[in-house]
């Protein structure tokens, strides 16, 4: 089950400058900064009541964020939904005909397991599913 919007991902060119900007906007500092090399990103997270904003800067020219910035410029990159059982949701969405970008969940930021759906199959919006890493899943993870 998709339980809530866990975060909204925003692609930025300069995360230090954007941290300052969003700190002023939200009147609160980021609670976490983390680099996830497997995704080619450096992130920072801001809490906004029940949800979060995730700022993303590319760590290499091959990063999905670098390609996105080149094509579309800065802005909303993805919407992440929290799921209670990521393997069960991946199976359900595959059966419903959605294009999963990952065969198995990948390590995400902020202690999450994540999987992406191709934006071409979701009205042009990249969707991330994420589950707390320490939650039990329907099957053991490799
Ligand atoms: C920090 C970890 C994690 C977390 O814990 O929260 C993250 O959030 S990581 C975020 C970064 N990682 C990802 O985005 C992984 C999933 N993305 C991908 O696999 C790829 O970016 C993609 C979506 C498959 C696109 O890759 P590719 O086909 O190689 O790139 P193109 O640049 O050629 O794009 C093809 C096509 O898709 C459009 N596109 C790309 N990204 C997005 C997007 N975020 N939202 C909407 N549309 C997107 C792109 O514009 C191209 O369209 P056309 O030009 O019309 O063909
Ligand atoms: Co994300």
Describe this structure in words.
Belongs to the methylmalonyl-CoA epimerase family. GO terms for molecular function: metal ion binding; methylmalonyl-CoA epimerase activity. By secondary structure, the protein is of the alpha+beta class. 22% of the residues lie in helices and 39% in strands. The protein is built from three helices and eight strands, in the order βαβββαβαβββ. Strands 2-3-4-1-5-8-7-6 form an eight-stranded mixed β-sheet. The radius of gyration is 15 Å and the shape is globular.
Mean pLDDT: 95
Beta content comes to: 35-45%
Number of helices: 3
The CATH architecture name reads Roll
Query: Taking strands numbered 1, 2, ... along the chain, how are they ordered across the largest sheet?
Result: 2-3-4-1-5-8-7-6
The value of Rg in angstroms is: 15 Å
Kindly identify the CATH topology: 2,3-Dihydroxybiphenyl 1,2-Dioxygenase, domain 1
Order of helices and strands: EHEEEHEHEEE
Low-confidence spans: none
Give the total of domains: 1
Main β sheet profile? 8 strands, mixed
What is the name of the CATH class? Answer: Alpha Beta
Number of strands: 8
Helix content: 10-25%
Bound molecules: ligand LP2KCY5N, cobalt (II) ion
